[in-house]
Write a structure and sequence with these properties.
The complex is a heterodimer.
Chain A: H1 18-28, E1 33-36, H2 43-52, E2 58-64, H3 71-85, H4 88-102, H5 107-111, H6 115-128, E3 134-140, H7 142-153, H8 155-171, E4 176-181, H9 185-194, E5 206-209, H10 215-228, H11 236-246, H12 251-263, H13 270-282, H14 292-295, H15 297-300, H16 306-318, H17 329-335, H18 346-358, E6 362-364, E7 370-372, H19 375-385
Parallel strand pairs in A: 1-4, 1-5, 2-3, 3-4
Antiparallel strand pairs in A: 6-7
Helix pairs in contact in A: 3-6, 6-8, 7-8, 7-9, 10-11, 10-12, 11-13, 16-19
Chain B: H1 3-10, E1 24-28, E2 31-34, H2 43-49, H3 54-69, E3 76-79, H4 86-98, E4 107-111, H5 121-135, H6 142-148, H7 153-167, E5 172-177, H8 180-201, E6 205-211, H9 216-219, E7 230-233, H10 239-252, H11 256-262, H12 265-278, H13 282-289, H14 294-299, H15 301-320, H16 324-335, H17 342-349, H18 353-365, E8 369-374, E9 377-382, H19 398-409, H20 422-429, H21 433-446, H22 458-466, H23 471-490, H24 494-510, H25 522-536, H26 543-558, H27 569-578
Parallel strand pairs in B: 3-6, 3-7, 4-5, 5-6
Antiparallel strand pairs in B: 1-2, 8-9
The chains are: A alpha/beta, B alpha/beta.
């Protein structure tokens, strides 16, 4: 197996995701799902593996919704997918039924109906099918689509699209979707709320967070990649373990490190591995684009001085003596003494901490204490902020 | 039969090649290396001269092989400035893939014409399909495509997507794209999103692309193609690679005498001189190889001047690819003698320092500039000194003076003068100056060429410094020495005069090696430099050696190589070598 950072992976090359995939199939029996994950953590590879190796009784349709710019485009896409799934007889039956009910005269007009009607009728047709195999939609980059619709058709329509899908989920108990996206859906919903159009578009869905790989899986992946790239190493197991641990078990970065060792024709020694990763963190051209964790703060936290305060919270958590140790809310409040820290009351701090948790910067343990979710990002934050 | 012979026998000239002769290097009646369109060069010739990137090519080939034989699909973006060898690499990749029998049934290659403009996904799909029609006419019908073009763009997109997805269900499409940055720019965000969606929903293709630099569409996390490609930086050729490339081309051309010369220490020295100016640019060596012979490489300046004519439009073209403000910065550095700080650049261009700071960093990223730090200051220079060709007046070219200096500097043959100054040096060492000068005059009087030993003045110069009991005496002795040396120079014709001055300059810089700085006060060292500048500073041919000498003395006084930050890389290399310092690289001084 060759290192393939960013490319499409053969399902056999997707490591360590069997458990979450089983969980997702189990959940789909009863509920639709929202997958939360940091970009490049491998959620699309999970969906692709599910698409290519579906559980018996399911037929997944994977759609990247990033290209959708209007509610109408979205409804037509869903309609087309459903038509393709339904047999010819069912399509004819549905057409005749609509002809009588709604006086629709031809296929073209059927598609030209308003987006809401088209979407609703398509899903209703799907639910009536006698087929034993169930269609499930894997919709990737949902937040991008909602944002595009918000820009093109306005916030009202964007909210209606989400609400319509929600209604269909509620009314049609066999209708299943998986939402994913590289930016949190909560940001898009927040914008709709700010525009005076609150929506509870995902309250009925099961939330799954995709995490980096388990250490054992990450090491197996690194070992197989080292082998596939024929990289010299005295102890492949140890080299794999160092690679996995140094990049915090992110499969994307594991692929990157092994690909980098191959390109630079380096042996997989501990020194070479650690040096390679360190160089990525300090390289002025930011090859892993980690600066995004800083630059997006202003977009994610646009209110008042929130972005500055968030940066200070991250500073506080980045300089704890032990990288893995966590701080309580009060400890953070006491330590955040920089002049730019405008959050003086506990509730406001809690609000920001929850957002940082939702945006994958931080994680909260069972005692309610916070730490950086990914040590790799903590390490980069220290370097970037000169802490 | 050598590989070269077999190549000659296989290739036959095409009738239309004759009219294009000025755009290519003619090796034999039927052998060409295209200087600016490597994809036109015969693949076996490209193969024969491929240098320094075999491991990288293997790596990309393995990725494509895995893409063709499994469900994985790799996407690669090769980046590096124009002339770095991207097209050569891509052409060879194409050739090897197309001729790999094991992959014959598993992949099809669509190589997109780099000059065609594409502004939408549907146009891109049509280009891909058209390329397949040309490469595989039995499988892909141009008539079918022409018929399809009667449909609406939406329908064409739909039909082509389904057709390609179906044709490549058990096979992989390799799309070779040059100038990906331009393609993405023309596609716009919407086109990129559509392409990304296509690649996500129908993963039947691997994209192997190239661009001059990394650009927002692939490095910004908010963009659809962030993290999609594996970025591979094509680095400049190393000195060894450049030497190998010239050797391979000479072998391909059957220039046995040049091959033999290149393999001598002196031949390597000549390549080193070129390398200092070329900055590892692949195309420069390809162009240069059209002009060099055993004799001209020895002289170096003549082929260099011919090459300059060919390369000038190339560098001017490169400047057209950057923004007006970036171009101003490069223009300024082309005109400038040495390096400049952002503050100075901003002052000269009447722009804010912040603006210049971001522009110069960008220029470093895209390979136009290099940076050297001194304390908190950063000094910028052209990554390829040859870029000055875009602006320089060739007759007064700093580059020509530099190449001439480096030609002498990197020679390794002895000066053939033997120990002709030994007696003079002994008399100087005994403080018998008048006798020493008389003996020196006698040496020159009795000698009737060759004059290669004229530059062996290091020891005499250092003796004058060492035994200069007063400033007056130091100045007087230096003047006498240079009167004698320049007298010899002036006896010769113009061509020979220039050569002798180059040797004298070489000797002046080499004399730094003999100076034991701990024995002299800074004032004495400064007087020494001032005296030499006073005597020979008006001779343009000694401009470069004098400048190096001056900076060499500054280092000997300060012991800090950071004083060299104001010099350009080839000059720093010379001083690092003569002063026994670690090799100089931008950013390390």
């Amino acid at each position: 197996m060759k290192a393939n950072p960013g490319g499409n992976l053969d399902p056999q090359h997707v490591y360590g995701r069997d458990t979450i995939i089983e969980l997702l199939w189990d959940r789909l029996e009863t509920q639709s799902i929202v997958i939360n994950a940091e970009r490049r953590i491998g959620k699309t590879q999970i969906l692709r593996k599910m698409q290519l190796e579906p559980r018996a009784g399911w037929r997944p349709v994977f759609r990247d919704l990033e290209k959708i710019h209007s509610a109408q485009e979205f409804a037509e896409l869903v309609y087309d997918d459903i038509q393709q799934f339904l047999g010819r007889a069912e399509k004819a039956k549905n057409f005749i039924q609509r002809f009588f009910e709604e006086n629709e005269t031809d296929y073209v007009n059927l598609k030209a109906r308003t987006w809401k009607k088209l979407l609703t009728s398509a899903v209703e047709d799907l639910m009536k099918t006698a087929q034993t195999v169930r269609l499930v939609f894997f919709w990737d980059e949902v937040p991008y689509m909602v944002e595009s619709i918000r820009n093109a058709d306005g916030p009202q329509v964007a909210a209606e699209v989400l609400d319509t899908i929600r209604s269909l989920r509620v009314e049609q108990d066999r209708f299943r979707v998986i939402f994913t996206g590289s930016t949190g859906l909560h940001h898009v919903l927040g914008k709709l709320t700010a525009a005076g159009i609150p929506t509870s578009a995902k309250n009925d869905m099961y939330h799954v967070t995709v995490t980096p790989l388990a250490p054992h899986d990450a090491e197996t992946l690194a070992k197989d990649l080292l082998n596939g790239e024929k990289i010299n190493c005295v102890d492949p197991g140890e080299a794999a373990s160092i690679i996995a641990e140094t990049v915090d078990y992110f499969p994307f970065y594991i692929h990157h490190v092994v690909a980098g060792l191959r390109i630079e024709e380096l042996n997989a020694t501990e020194a070479n591995i650690r040096d390679f990763v360190s160089r990525q963190l300090v390289d002025a051209s930011d090859p892993w684009q980690l600066a995004h964790y800083r630059t997006r703060l202003a977009t994610y936290y646009p209110d008042n001085d929130d972005a500055d305060s968030v940066a200070i919270i991250l500073d506080v958590l980045a300089i704890t003596a032990n990288p893995a140790s966590s701080l309580s809310v009060d400890e953070i409040l006491a330590a955040a003494t920089s002049p730019g820290f405008s959050v003086k009351d506990r509730n406001n701090l809690l609000r920001l901490l929850r957002l940082l948790d939702a945006d994958h910067y931080l994680s909260r343990d069972t005692d309610g204490r916070y730490r950086f979710r990914f040590l790799l990002i903590r390490r980069w934050w220290r370097v970037d902020r000169g802490l | 039969m050598s590989k070269h012979d077999s190549i000659k026998k296989k290739r036959r000239p095409a009738a239309d090649k004759a009219v294009q002769i000025d755009h290519q290097l003619q090796f034999t009646d039927d052998q060409f290396i295209w200087k600016f369109s490597p994809n036109q060069t015969a693949p076996d010739l490209l193969e024969a001269i491929f240098t320094g990137r075999e491991s990288l090519l293997q790596n990309v080939l393995e990725k494509i092989t895995e893409s063709a034989t499994t469900g994985s699909k790799h996407h690669v973006l090769l980046y590096g400035p124009r002339g770095i060898g991207k097209s050569h690499f891509t052409s060879l990749l194409h050739h090897r893939l197309a001729n790999d029998a094991k992959l014959a049934k598993k992949l099809r290659i669509a190589r997109l014409n780099e000059d065609e403009t594409t502004t939408s996904l549907v146009q891109l799909l049509v280009r891909i399909y058209r390329s397949l029609c040309s490469a595989y006419p039995e499988e892909y019908s141009r008539d079918w495509l022409d018929e399809l073009l009667n449909q609406s763009p939406v329908e064409i997109t739909d039909v082509l997507t389904r057709r390609l997805a179906s044709r490549f269900e058990h096979c992989t499409l390799v799309v070779l794209i040059e100038n990906l940055n331009l393609l993405f720019e023309n596609l716009g965000t919407r086109g990129q999103k559509e392409l990304r969606t296509l690649m996500q929903e129908h993963p039947f293709a691997c994209l192997i692309a190239s661009s001059q630099q990394l650009f927002k569409a692939v490095i910004d996390r908010s963009q659809p193609f962030f993290g999609f490609f594996q970025h591979i930086h094509l680095k400049p050729l190393s000195l060894d690679d450049a030497h190998q490339l010239l050797l391979k081309i000479a072998r391909s051309k059957g220039q046995d005498d040049l091959v033999a010369y290149l393999n001598t220490p002196d031949g390597r020295g000549r390549v080193r001189a070129i390398h200092d100016l070329a900055g590892g640019n692949h195309r420069v060596y390809i162009v240069l190889s059209g002009f060099i012979t055993r004799e001209s490489l020895d002289q170096l300046v003549a082929p260099f001047q011919k090459m300059a004519d060919d390369l000038t439009p190339y560098y001017q073209e490169r400047l057209r690819w950057i923004s007006p403000q970036q171009r101003q910065v490069v223009e300024l550095l082309c005109r400038e003698r040495g390096t400049l700080t952002p503050k100075e650049i901003a002052r000269r261009l009447l722009v804010s320092e912040n603006t210049i700071g971001s522009q110069v960093r960008k220029l470093v990223e895209i390979g136009y500039l290099s940076a050297t730090k001194r304390g908190r200051e950063t000094f910028y220079e052209l990554s390829e000194p040859l870029m000055r060709l875009a602006f320089e007046v060739k007759e007064q070219s700093l580059l020509v003076m530099l190449i001439d200096f480096l030609r002498i500097w990197y020679r390794t043959e002895p000066s053939q003068g033997g120990d002709r100054f030994g007696r003079t040096e002994a008399l100087f060492g005994s403080n018998r100056w008048e006798e020493g000068f008389s003996v020196l005059e006698l040496v020159f009087k009795e000698h009737d060429g060759p004059w290669g030993f004229l530059g062996d003045v290091s020891s005499m110069l250092s003796l004058i410094l060492q035994n200069g009991s007063s400033n007056e005496k130091l100045v007087s002795r230096l003047n006498t020495l240079f009167d004698i040396l320049l007298g010899v120079v002036n006896r010769h014709d113009e061509k020979q005069k220039l050569n002798l001055l180059s040797m004298l300059g070489d000797g002046l810089v080499k004399s730094l090696e003999y100076i034991d700085a701990d024995h002299f006060t800074p004032q004495v060292m400064e007087s020494y430099v001032a005296a030499i500048e006073q005597r020979v500073g008006s001779i343009p041919q000694l401009d470069i050696p004098l400048r190096l000498f001056r900076y060499g003395i500054r280092f000997l006084i300060s012991k800090d190589p950071a004083v060299f930050a104001e010099l350009i890389q080839p000059e720093r290399n010379v001083l690092h070598q003569v002063l026994g310092l670690a090799p100089s690289h931008a950013g390390t001084d």
